[in-house]
Structure formats: structure tokens, C-alpha cells
Amino acid sequence: MSKFLSQRLLSLAPxxxxxxxxxxxxxxxxxxxxxxxxxxxxFEIMNDTEAANLxxxxxxxxxxxxxxxxxxxxIKPENIIFGNGSDEILAFAFTAFCDKDTGAAFPNISxxxxxxxxxxxxxxxxxxxxxxxxTINPENYYNAGKTIFIANPNAPTGIMLSVSDxxxxxxxxxxxxxxxxxxxVDFGGESCVPLINKYENLLVVQTFSKSRSLAGARxxxxxxxxxxxxxxxRVRNSNNPYNINRLTQAMGAASxxxxxxxxxxxxxxxxxxxxxxxxxxxxxxxxxxSKTNFVFAKSSKTKGEDxxxxxxxxxxxxxxxxxxxxxxxxxxxxxxxxxxxxxxSAIDEIEV
Amino acid sequence: MSKFLSQRLLSLAPxxxxxxxxxxxxxxxxxxxxxxxxxxxxFEIMNDTEAANLxxxxxxxxxxxxxxxxxxxxIKPENIIFGNGSDEILAFAFTAFCDKDTGAAFPNISxxxxxxxxxxxxxxxxxxxxxxxxTINPENYYNAGKTIFIANPNAPTGIMLSVSDxxxxxxxxxxxxxxxxxxxVDFGGESCVPLINKYENLLVVQTFSKSRSLAGARxxxxxxxxxxxxxxxRVRNSNNPYNINRLTQAMGAASxxxxxxxxxxxxxxxxxxxxxxxxxxxxxxxxxxSKTNFVFAKSSKTKGEDxxxxxxxxxxxxxxxxxxxxxxxxxxxxxxxxxxxxxxSAIDEIEV
Lengths: 352, 352
Fold this sequence. Notes:
Two copies of one chain form a homodimer.
Chain A: E1 27-29, H1 40-44, H2 48-52, H3 63-73, E2 80-83, H4 86-97, E3 104-107, H5 113-120, E4 125-128, E5 147-151, H6 163-171, E6 178-181, E7 202-207, E8 220-224, H7 226-237, H8 246-257, H9 259-282, E9 286-287, E10 294-298, H10 304-313, E11 316-320, E12 329-333, H11 337-350
């Protein structure tokens, strides 16, 4: 730390991404990546013309990508904004809709970045406890008096609130924005996108990192009424108007247009998730009901940290959170059938 | 604007990027892009393996890129941080080193984004006037009591301060960070990078968008002492730790390793710049002495806006700034020899 760092950032505890050890080849089930490659169109974009055109700035309006996405979602171009990953859209939302008067509220067990953003922005924030069964009680969010951030399905639990529960939260917060972070919604969840014209306070955030196999390309987006999106565009244009690179814009458009491949991959993952859940339950694991590309599960025999370490020793990475309430659970990304079979075998070897 | 937008952002005037009209094919001399394609290595990265790997997150530590850049600059890995364009590094610096007590100071004629960042962060900021000949008077920055941002060479003037002038500014601001934005330094300027171990308050910012023909890939970086870089990493990790996508990391490493191609392109641009300057001077234009890939020039016959519009009509885009002091000047990107010959012919047709 330098002596020049702003005092307000002294106590900041940055987000810790999932580990990426390089000592050997692991089966990576720890960062919720998609085991399948991006759509064919993304491969076709990897050509000499596109490489040569990298000398030119990307389109700050993301016109082709916006057109593809607005067609797909049945919305107007003015209802969508793109970010360098959905994290950037979340960052824009914290900047636009929170300040010293309007803090933030989010579940105490959720995507770890909400708290980091709240601290970076020096906000008054509330972490609202989950129920004992890890579900969210919608009523706890009524009249929060703060900007609300809810991951739906939630992470790392995988549990989904119904759209009608979200509607009740929206109705009971008419003076505050409610951000619904749907990073994992494509794995069997129901999206709130159709509600954007009904609720002026609804911002839906999604990503290309999970269901669309483009984590490495960095692309996320926000969908909401025109006025909310205008606010986010104002922040984007005051921050980094060329935030999405040329190749990512083209690949995003290709991905969103290839609905068949998207459904094929997400269906395969849903099917593998069912298999993984069944196999874990057969072994007396407590497994939360997941609508995501991961399961959150607790062994009846092995402590969370022990199981995480033993799996790592066997070349399988899963995510362990050193946090009370959830420290006996592991978050396991749904990989290919083969990867999940290796995981189950490894568990059987550990828990003989 | 929604009713939810934070009051503090109501008066924000976002940055306006150079126009990108789509009505016909233009000779684009308006956004300081490089007319030559990226290095050969960037083309080689456009392959199926890299496309398939986009399903995985990029390396948040940018290890390969950091290694290539630290070798090139003769610095340690801990002395460099990468951003989604140099704009993001500037944004991180405003966040880390400015607050309600420490404002920002920058030239009144400079990169337009400094003012936007200052307003976004609600800072107390000072715009320090240039001399009448558009040079910067270093003494005006002594003991500024604020974080200083200087583009060197400056934009849109193209004029460079000497390294000893910068050293004097550094020495006379021991309690504040001095950010030297070297976006254009590779076109004949002298970099301050060798000073980073001498001055703990020096942050140098550079970009791959100009000299390395990767504007569309979005990559910039900051170089400074370990403590300053740690501060910026803290902000990055609290904001967007996966900020650089996989392909951009690989292409950046390829570009920085291919020194011969880099020199070939920058030398060609310097030579074309000399030609452009000579031709404009022969036509009685006032041309500022440029160390960049653009020239800032004023016709003795035609008003700035008129010339800009007449060139646009002829299919040539240059940058016009509707701002007193500089509104009779045009910023002209140094394109290929052929493009610049077309520009000169067009001027001859306009100013018969």
C-alpha cells in the first residue's frame, strides 16, 4: 500500500476469485465454467479479417450485438446495455443507483462481489440473512429503503426465488432499484426479463460466461426500462465507452443467434446436474435444489474443508467457502458426465 | 434519466468519442487509430484452440502478459497492472488516489476524459491553462495539492514535455501522485518509465491502442513502484478482477514481444507525420510540433469547423473540437501515405 491511497479504501477486502493452481492438470469444477466450447459462430470469427480490424476501436454502441440481443429477448435496443462481464454492469449499477443516502441490501450468503462493491463505494449496506434452509424470504426485502441486489438463482446455494416472489419485492420497493442478477438463470430458471416494462425499478443482469461458454471473452449485460438503461449508459460513457472489444461483440452476437446450440449445452448440463444430485444423495449428501450449473452439497461423513482438500489431492478442484453457516458445503460445478463420474469415484475413494 | 439515478450524477457530461458515421466509406483520420494491422502473432492467436478455451475465465493475474511486458520494460512483474484499455487504468487511478480531500489537476486542453472522471468521482478539480503556444508550463503544477494527470505528449496538441520537466513536477509534488499518460509516447517521445524506481509518486500509463494496432482488443497498462501498483490492484480486484479477456492477454504478449514490427510501424508513422506536417506548412497551415500519431493544425484560410465539414463531405474524417482556443484547429490522425495524400489533395480542392 502506498501513502497516497485514499483513506476510504484502507479497509477494503477485495473479491477472491476461485483458485487457478498451475502445479498439475486438474478437473476444474470450481469456477462454474461451462464444460462445452462456445458456439460454432465464435470459431468462425477467429479469422484474418477480424484480426486485422483490431487496429480499429470497437463500436461503442455495440450495434450488431444489441440488435441480436434485442431480437432474442423481444425488447428494444434501448432496453439493454453491455458490460465487460456482468461484474461491470453490477459496478455501474452500484455507481448509478447507490450513494451516501441510498445504500445497498443483499443476502448474507450470495455472490461475494456485492459486499465488495458496497465497500468500494463506501455505502451503508445490509446483509439480510437467509432462512435456515438457505432460501430467501422475500418479505425481508420489502421496503428496504436501499438498492437491492439478489442473485436469482442465488449463489452459491443454487436456489431460485419464483418470479412472483420477485414481483412482490419489486412492488414493495417502488422507490428503489431492485437488481436481479440472473447469471445462472439459463439452467432451468425463469427469467424476470419479461417484467421490465411492468416495473420501472427492475434491472435484470445476465452473463455470457456460464450458459454461453464465453467466460474468457468477458461479456455481460443489463436489461431494464429505457430510463434505467440510460442511467447506466451515462455511467458507462463516463467510465469506459469502448468497454467491449471487437471480437467479443461479434462472438456475443453469434452466440445469442445460435439458440439450438445454447439449448443443447444447457440441456446437457441440466441432465448432468440431475445425475450428480442423485449420486450425491445416494451417498447421503445434503444437496440443495439447484437451478444453476453447480450444486451446493454437504457430506454426512467429511467436513467441507477436508473433502475439498482430499479432492484437490486427487486432481479435482471444487469451491470451498471458509465462512460460517456454509463451511461444510462445497460448491461443485456441473462439468461433463465424464468429469462428474471422476468426481463421484474420487468421493467413493475418500469416503470408503 | 430515471428517478433512481444518484443526485450526484445529475450534471455529469459523459465523454464523447469520435464519430463513427456509417453512411459511406470514409478515410478515418479522426480517432488516432494505427493504419497498420497488429503484429503477426495476433493473427496466429486466432485459432480453434483459443476459441474453444474461451469457455474458461481469463487469468486474473495476466501472468504471461505481465512476464512479456516486464521483460520488455526491464521492470518487475509487481510494477505493472493491465486494464481494459488505458481508460480503465485512469479510472482506477482516480478511484485510488483521489477523494473528497484530494482532488485532481490537469491541463485545460488535454484528453477530455480527465474531466469526466473527475466529475464522475465528484472531485474538486482544477483545469490548469496551457501557455498561449499550447505548451504546458511545468511550474504551474508545482505543489498542486492534488493528484496530477498529464498526457505526455499532450492531446490534442501533440506537444511533449521533457522528462526533466516531468521530474521537476514529480519533485515538487512529493505528497501527491503524478499520472503521466503516455498513450502516444511511442511515436518519437521519451518515456518516464525509467523513473518509476526513483519517484514513488509516479504512475506511467500506456496503451496498446495506438502504437500496437490493438485499439479493438482493449488493452492498456500502468507502471509504477510496487506500492502504487498494489493500490491499483486493490481497486481492480474490488471492481473487475477478470478485466482482460483471454485473447487480448495473448495478443498483448505477442505484440510486446515483436519489437521489430512495432518499430517498423511506428517509424512509418513518424515518417508520414513529417510528410503531412511539411505539406500542411507549405499550404500555410500552423502545425504544432507533434510527437504522436496525429498532428494538430490550423488553416490560414478556412475556419476549423468549415474545413472539418468540407473534408467530411469529401469522405475524409478528421477530429474537430467545438471548444474555444482550439476550435480553429483540426486533429488529423497520421494514416498511411496514401490516405494522407488523399487528405492533402482534398485540402487543395477545398482551398483553391
